[in-house]
Amino acid sequence: MSAHGTPIPMTSRPCGPLNGEAHVPGDKSISHRSLILGAMSVGETIVTGLLEGQDVLDTAKAMQAFGADITRDEDGTWHVHGVGVGGFAEPDQVIDCGNSGTGVRLIMGCMATSDMAVTFTGDASLNKRPMARVTDPLALFGAQSVGRSGGRLPMTVVGAADPVPVRYVVPVPSAQVKSAVLLAGLNAPGQTVVIEKEATRDHTERMLAGFGAEISVVDTPEGREITLTGQPELRAQTIVVPRDPSSAAFPVCAALIVPGSDVLVPNIGLNPTRAGLFETLRDMGADLTYENLREEGGEPVADLRARYSPKMRGIEVPPARAASMIDEYPVLSVVAAHATGRTVMRGVKELRVKECDRIDAMAKGLRACGVTVDEGPDWWEVEGMGPGAMPGGATVEVFLDHRIAMSFLVAGMAAKTAITVEDGGPIATSFPIFEGLMADLGADLVKA
Ligand code: S3P
Fold first, then answer.
1. DSSP string, 229-267
2. Catalytic pick from 27, 96, 287, 327?
3. pLDDT band at 340, cuts 50/70/90?
4. Do 285 and 240 contact (CB within 8 A), yes or no?
5. Which of 66, 218, 417, 438 would be a feasible disulfide site paired with 443, CB 3.0-4.6 Å?
């Protein structure tokens, strides 16, 4: 469902083996950042492999509203003519970021040190999510904000006319918060320092360096300390967006639980800040191999081969790995239900403030499918039923969350009875080709 659309129920029926190659779309995090950094650069940034999901399209529209010229060729190549750091124009409309927390938080960061007032909104999911985690550090630069109670959207941010650089220790493990502070630091004089106690995805740091910013990262006793020198001239880049490991997670996990499957998912980035799911699956005993391991654009990349794995065991997922697989816990819990023994997931309270409360959504849906789930404020446990033993046969709510929808459609492929999601529409935010791609592998998905 789009922001105001009608729900699109979808059913996934138990299917035969999944076979073939799954070419998943471009990385969502890198796609957002390509458009935003392109818009803040001088010259023409050319992007291929951009994820054309609704979240990223909303960011493209927002960057146009700030004055960037953005066009798309028929072959899917995107051109961003940037306005340079400090070159944003005040949008004359409300900025609607749809379902995207990454979009709104990064864009708030990059306008917060410009002399302008911008009003942000989103869909019913985004308008429930906490924004104070971003507006608190932006206030240190001199930006002000007024939103709804609980720091929620719609919200107006008034950028600082005379920003000062900041030193900020990020209190929650969040790449969005870290990135918002760094993007705000671009238009502040002097050095902005961000310290994160736990490493989160580092695309912003890597890409800022690629666009010519002066940025350094050192490990200190306080955490990972990132220092950015403000007011650089960012130089336009040519970017090839790698394929999204978070999207690869769905065909990989489906292949592990559907009997007889053998699926190749080529060209997946294995940046250590993103690859936690694959390590966890291997720890559980999954037949998941990295083929043709190589380096591309300074990042490890491999073709993932996933084969049916009836001998997986439940494990305690190392909490230190949480940030590197934070978006993958929903689909991991589906695999956990097919393993033997309990899977314990701790240190994951951030799951409660994603597109929905993902622990609650998965627990409700899995229980409706016959799986035992226990949960607490920052942990949950799934009782494995063994391969193919999940009863299924339920209709589950997805709470406007693409990853909940895809997780239960994967679950339906290996359950005893079909599973219906009450709305498959949100899948278009991150993986618009999901239905066709999974059907080509052999999944039996229908609009219910
Ligand atoms: C993202 C960061 C993560 C992740 C989200 C994308 C990003 O959120 O869940 O899907 O692109 O920076 P947090 O910043 O809350 O960790």
1. ESS--PBP-EEEPPBPHHHHHHHHHHHHHSTT-EEEEEE
2. 327
3. very high
4. no
5. 438
- Encode 28-38: b = buried (16+ Cβ within 10 Å), e = exposed: bbbbbbbbbbb
Would strands 191-196 and 167-170 be described as parallel, antiparallel, or unpaired?
parallel
Is 360 designated active site? no
Q: Ligand 1 in contact with 326 (CB < 6 A)?
A: yes
Q: Going by CA atoms, what residue is nearest to atom 4 of ligand 1? A: 327
Reply yes or no on whether the pLDDT at 52 is more than 70: yes
CA of 353, closest atom in ligand 1: 15
Q: What's the angle, vertex CA 395, arms to CA 245 and CA 57, rounded to 5? A: 40
Task: For residues 373 and 389, give the distance between their C-alpha atoms in angstroms, rounded to a whole number.
Answer: 15
123: amino acid identity, one letter: D
Regarding the beta carbon of 102 and ligand 1, being less than 6 Å apart is answered: yes
Q: Decide whether any atom of ligand 1 lies within 6 Å of the 338 Cβ.
A: no
SS3 (DSSP) at 325: helix
Residue 294 burial by CB count (10 A; 0-12/13-18/19+): exposed, middle or buried? exposed
Percent of the chain with pLDDT over 90: 97
Sort strands 379-385 and 373-376 into parallel, antiparallel or unpaired: antiparallel
Ligand 1 pocket, residue 99 CB under 6 Å: no
CA of 176 to the centre of ligand 1 (A): 5
The DSSP bridge pattern shows strands 69-72 and 78-81 to be antiparallel
Report the phi/psi class of residue 62: left, alpha or beta, with left for phi > 0 and alpha for psi in -120 to 50: alpha
The pLDDT value given to residue 78? 98
Q: For a substitution probing ligand 1, which of 29, 181, 355 has the most ligand atoms within 8 Å of its CB?
A: 29
CA dist 139 and 133 (Å) reads 11
Is the overall model pTM greater than 0.90, yes or no?
yes
Give the pLDDT score at 256.
99
